Amino acid sequence: MIAAYLEIRDGKIKKSSLEALSEARRRAAELGVGTAAVLVGADVAGLAPAAFALGAGKAYVIENPVFADYSPQSYALALAAFVGEAKPAALFFAATAMGRDLAPRLAARLGAGLASDCTKVAVKDGTLEFTRPIYAGKAFLSLRLKTSPKLATLRPNVFPLGESGGGAGETVRLEIAVPEGSIKGRVAEVLKEESAEVDVTEADVIVSGGRGLKGPEAFALLRDMAAVFPRAAVGASRSAVDSGWIGHQHQVGQTGKTVSPELYVAVGISGAIQHLAGMSSSKFIVAVNKDPEAPIFKVADYGIVGDLFEVVPKLTEELKKALND
Amino acid sequence: MNICVFVKRVPDTESRIRIQHETWTIVEEGLNFVISPYDEYAVEEALRLKESKGGTVRVMSVGRDETVAILRKCLAMGADEVLLVKDGSPETYDGLRTARIIARAVERRLAGADLLLFGRQSVGADNSQVPAMVAELLGLPQASVVTKLEVEGASATALREIEGGMEKVVLSLPAVVTAQKGLNEPRYETLKGIMAAKKKEIPSVTLEELGFGPDELVSAVETIGLDVPAARQAGKIIKGDPAETARELVRLLRDEAKVL
Fold first, then answer.
1. Is residue A243 assigned to a domain?
2. A161 and A27 co-located in one domain
3. Nearest C-alpha of chain B: how many angstroms from A279?
4. Which of A154, A199, B84, B244 yields a CA-CA distance of 20 to 30 A from A261?
5. Given an 8 Å threshold on Cβ–Cβ distance, is B13 in contact with A274?
6. In this structure, is the dihedral angle defined by the CA atoms of residues B29, B30, B36 and B40, taken in order, positive or negative?
7. pLDDT tens digits for range A265-303
8. Residues A30 and A106 in one domain
9. Which domain holds residue A300?
């Protein structure tokens, strides 16, 4: 079987985990094997139907009060027990903060190789093949894993969600004893960003600003535009972040985040190689820049050469009209 | 405090990556190699902790002989000791292999560490695998992608970045922590530091000396392709006054790109 670990935040399964499960299902169908979901937490069995709806035949549920708070140590124990019991051919994670923290821990525990942050999974000669960006997307590496199970984290927003409407499945409960004192790190608190913005790695639309914004104030224009879309985030170039205009968690590019939204709007961003690496896999790119020679126009599907302070408010206005139609 | 930092030599972020297609490796000629930027935050954090709490900072890297350059940089920044684990093999993109080497080196050569600091990922392989793997192999807790770290006695509190917020992680030491941009602002080396570092002998150890047999470190990853992405085509430039261009762009996004 191919399994997907379903990450739960705020009592809900993360969309990127459902994407990973959908990809598990597609590749499992190609290999002629089953699909399973794995849920770990204090009280998570009730979420299993969401996995069945996406075609998982089984949901492995590992419940214990110990798992109320995430710890890579204890969760790796739980997943290792799942692997021992179910012997999946492969286990996929979403390449989220949790997935990237947890999957390598499990890999080391199992002595298995791991393909990180994959953007493509294929089946060839009965074997899974993974493709992943390296150098923040300046190159793509394709690989096979020689160990078992095949562990991979899949980049959010890349793999489509499967058709919902699958049938019932079987819930399998696994009991795991976590020896007292064996877990030496724990999450004491989760601090939400006040704005409750969507993270750039999970956004469908990113409105990004660079040096051309001339200061932190102009990011308000970008936030206004982002607010027009249902799942949009504000991004930034490294120079805007290093100037202190916006927090580094918004930075797109090498030493920031690599993103692939449906639509990337680059405002006042010239397009340094580090930035282009991080956003070139966006589906559509729009650039607004006053310099017609800016490298960003070489990758943009649509470009407007002009003063962003005039263009962006007009654009926000037009987008509002179009989306409210 | 006894702090160990683990650093990697990588091409700088301005590098244009070219591929040697016959071998599926990157062309190194013409690249400028540096300490991976996130590792620099880790070194800086170690030095600050040492300055406030006393102790030692030891820096280790796994790599070829050329790696001594980044270890010298760490000495010039203020590290007390460095160690090169000589590994002549080309990049495998297999975090587990590197993690096994580091875990063994920690046990045999860097015993007594209270804190193991890494960059959140190497710039290049972009795996984010090695630190968590080392933590698991050594049975230590971890906090990854950390933007704030406080150490008090035998425990540490770390703020780690997650989607849309932060997790406050409490760790009992020894522990593994990985540095994210924002943790600190790395210092520049002083001229005096650079001169002193130049004269220092860089101690090294081989994989054999760490007790690895010839077949023990086979990569779990088999590379089956390496390529640069297809270049994007430059698209349409929309001309006119701001209101006109905005209207035309939205029309194109809706009717042509169909993203609205």
1. yes
2. yes
3. 11
4. B244
5. yes
6. positive
7. 999 999 999 999 999 999 999 999 999 999 999 999 999
8. yes
9. 200-324
Residue (of B62, B103, B98, B104) closest to B83 by Cα position: B62
- Say if A263 falls within a structural domain: yes
Instruction: For A226-242, write each residue's pLDDT tens digit.
Output: 999 999 999 999 999 99
Instruction: Name residue A311's amino acid.
Output: V
Q: Which of B24, B31, B245 to mutate to test the interface with A (most CBs of A within 10 A)?
A: B245
* Identity of the residue numbered A176: I
Interface of A with B in 136-195 (CB under 8 A): 136-147, 183-193
E-assigned strand segments in A158-291: 170-173, 185-192, 205-209, 232-236, 263-267, 284-289
Given 3-state DSSP classes, what are the helix, strand and coil percentages for chain A, each rounded to the nearest 5?
35, 30, 35
Q: How far apart are CA B143 and CA B140, in angstroms?
A: 10
A145 and A228 both lie in a single domain: no
Q: If DSSP codes are grouped into helix, strand and coil, which group holds residue A265?
A: strand
Report CB contact under 8 Å: A311, B246: yes
Q: What is the 3-state secondary structure (H, E, C) of chain B?
A: CEEEEEECEEECCCCCCCEECCCCEECCCCCCEEECHHHHHHHHHHHHHHHHHCCEEEEEEEECHHHHHHHHHHHHHCCCEEEEEECCCCCCCCHHHHHHHHHHHHHHHCCCCCEEEEECCCCCCCCCCHHHHHHHHHCCCEEEEEEEEEEECCEEEEEEEECCEEEEEEEECCEEEEECCCCCCCCCCCHHHHHHHHHCCCCEEECCCCCCCCCCCCCCEEEEEEECCCCCCCCEEECCCHHHHHHHHHHHHHHCCCCC
Query: Please, how many CA atoms are within 13 Å of residue A270, restricted to the half-sphere of its CB?
Result: 12
Does A206 lie in the same domain as A169? no
What CATH homologous superfamily does B2-206 map to?
A: HUPs (3.40.50.620)
Q: What is the residue whose two structure tokens read 């020679």?
A: A293
Is-contact A58 A170, C-beta < 8 A?
A: yes
Distance of CA B134 to the CA centre of its chain: 14
| Inside any domain, residue A41 | yes
pTM for the model = 0.96
| CATH number where A104 lies | 3.40.50.620
Length of chain A: 325
